[in-house]
Amino acid sequence: MQLGTRWTAREQPPKAVPEALHAQIAAVEAALTPDGLSAPAPRWTLTFLEGRPVAELDTGVIVTQDAAGEVVVRYDDDAEFA
Question: Is residue 82 in a domain?
Fold first, then answer.
Protein backbone atom coordinates (compact mmCIF):
# COMPACT_ATOMS: atom_id res chain seq x y z
CA MET A 1 0.00 0.00 0.00
CA GLN A 2 1.28 3.44 -0.89
CA LEU A 3 0.29 6.41 1.24
CA GLY A 4 -1.19 9.26 -0.75
CA THR A 5 -2.43 12.25 1.21
CA ARG A 6 -5.01 13.57 3.67
CA TRP A 7 -7.48 16.43 3.41
CA THR A 8 -10.50 17.78 5.26
CA ALA A 9 -14.02 17.01 4.04
CA ARG A 10 -15.68 19.80 2.05
CA GLU A 11 -12.30 21.13 0.89
CA GLN A 12 -11.01 20.75 -2.66
CA PRO A 13 -9.43 17.28 -2.99
CA PRO A 14 -5.67 17.42 -3.61
CA LYS A 15 -4.35 16.90 -7.14
CA ALA A 16 -3.31 13.35 -6.17
CA VAL A 17 -6.99 12.32 -5.95
CA PRO A 18 -8.08 10.91 -9.32
CA GLU A 19 -10.82 12.93 -11.01
CA ALA A 20 -12.92 9.76 -11.29
CA LEU A 21 -13.47 9.80 -7.51
CA HIS A 22 -14.42 13.47 -7.17
CA ALA A 23 -18.18 13.16 -7.86
CA GLN A 24 -18.70 10.38 -5.30
CA ILE A 25 -16.53 12.12 -2.71
CA ALA A 26 -18.68 15.24 -3.16
CA ALA A 27 -21.86 13.14 -2.82
CA VAL A 28 -20.60 11.63 0.45
CA GLU A 29 -19.68 15.07 1.77
CA ALA A 30 -23.11 16.46 0.82
CA ALA A 31 -24.69 13.79 3.03
CA LEU A 32 -22.61 14.79 6.06
CA THR A 33 -24.58 16.68 8.69
CA PRO A 34 -22.80 19.21 10.92
CA ASP A 35 -23.09 18.31 14.58
CA GLY A 36 -23.69 21.91 15.68
CA LEU A 37 -21.00 21.59 18.33
CA SER A 38 -18.14 22.99 16.26
CA ALA A 39 -16.53 19.57 15.98
CA PRO A 40 -13.87 19.44 13.28
CA ALA A 41 -14.93 18.10 9.90
CA PRO A 42 -13.86 14.52 9.23
CA ARG A 43 -10.77 13.96 7.11
CA TRP A 44 -10.16 11.85 4.06
CA THR A 45 -7.12 9.61 3.60
CA LEU A 46 -6.06 8.67 0.08
CA THR A 47 -4.04 5.50 -0.42
CA PHE A 48 -3.42 3.23 -3.36
CA LEU A 49 -4.01 -0.51 -3.08
CA GLU A 50 -2.88 -2.67 -5.98
CA GLY A 51 -2.50 0.54 -7.98
CA ARG A 52 -6.11 1.63 -7.44
CA PRO A 53 -7.11 4.71 -5.42
CA VAL A 54 -8.87 4.29 -2.07
CA ALA A 55 -10.27 7.39 -0.33
CA GLU A 56 -11.44 6.68 3.22
CA LEU A 57 -13.29 9.19 5.38
CA ASP A 58 -12.72 9.11 9.16
CA THR A 59 -16.38 8.06 9.52
CA GLY A 60 -15.73 4.77 7.72
CA VAL A 61 -17.05 5.66 4.26
CA ILE A 62 -14.76 4.37 1.52
CA VAL A 63 -14.72 5.57 -2.10
CA THR A 64 -12.61 3.44 -4.40
CA GLN A 65 -12.22 2.38 -7.99
CA ASP A 66 -12.59 -1.32 -8.78
CA ALA A 67 -10.60 -3.31 -11.33
CA ALA A 68 -13.15 -2.47 -14.04
CA GLY A 69 -12.73 1.26 -13.39
CA GLU A 70 -16.11 1.70 -11.69
CA VAL A 71 -16.25 3.97 -8.65
CA VAL A 72 -17.64 2.17 -5.61
CA VAL A 73 -18.84 3.68 -2.32
CA ARG A 74 -19.04 1.41 0.70
CA TYR A 75 -18.91 1.56 4.49
CA ASP A 76 -16.24 -0.05 6.64
CA ASP A 77 -18.19 -1.84 9.39
CA ASP A 78 -15.04 -1.93 11.52
CA ALA A 79 -14.49 1.84 11.44
CA GLU A 80 -13.32 3.30 14.74
CA PHE A 81 -15.84 6.18 14.62
CA ALA A 82 -18.84 4.13 13.48
Answer: no
Q: What is the pTM of this model?
A: 0.84
Residues 18 and 44 sit within 8 Å (Cβ to Cβ): no
DSSP letter assigned to residue 42: P
pLDDT tens sequence for the chain (82 residues):
456 799 999 999 999 999 999 999 999 999 987 766 767 889 999 999 999 999 999 999 999 999 999 999 999 877 665 4
For residue 51, give its domain range: 5-30+41-75
Task: Count structural domains, the chain.
Answer: 1
